[in-house]
Amino acid sequence: MLQADLYPQIFKRKSIRDYDLTPLDGAVLENIVEQINNLEPLYADIEVNLKIISAEEVNPRMMKKAPHYVAFFSENKEGYKTNAGFMLQQMDLFFSAKGLGSCWQGIPKPKKHVLESSDLEFVILMAFGRTKVQQLHRTSNLEFKRKPLSKISDMETEGGLDELLEAARLAPSATNSQPWFFKGDKHVIHAYVVKPNILRAIMLKKYILIDMGIALYHLKLAAEHFGKTNQIIFHETGSESSPRGYEYVASLRID
Length: 255
Fold this sequence. Notes:
The protein is α+β, with helices and mostly antiparallel strands. The protein has helices at 26-37, 80-97, 112-115, 149-152, 161-169, 198-225, 236-240; strands at 48-54, 68-74, 101-105, 121-129, 180-184, 188-194, 230-233, 246-254. The chain has a four-stranded antiparallel β-sheet with strand order 1-2-4-3, covered by helices on one side.
């Protein structure tokens, strides 16, 4: 599936928590493996490993029981959580496009034998399968509970920037915290992540950089959809102008 096909799913996808536990057939799983093997990384120098595992291979604590899960393992180096969010959100949108439900799983972990099967660090799970009774897709943007653009960016939205920022605005995040902020202009969009207070750090520290990767993927996907040549970079101006309470992550250069 081409990336351009994933863009409409930004406005339709939702987290599915009620699954038909019947395993997917082999042809469907082969298609999913093919997609996994062709995911675009945010940072190509970070080694990752994605495994499809069953419900029996996941510790049951706080899990949403599904027939299958994608387990994301990664080399632990700078940017690895943001990279995980960027890559695994591609699967979230892919599942939606294929008529399957999915849901980020922040607390559950694979069982010991799965963890020991990789030399890399386990990062996060994503449940997936056919939905049981829950409607798969949203029918309106009004179903999203998200901050308005004015709360996540101070940018002027002429020249189609509002379309890019809207895609980022609708990105999912842990407890719907939306920890991102965007600054810049039609040539470069700087992305920032909130610095959590003590309480928030305890609850969400693991997730906010993963969430930032999800939003960055939505931003980049929207730019590609509208035919804009783009590249995610580190930009000195971005790092020097962080809003109060936020820290710089990366920038999307638009040519």
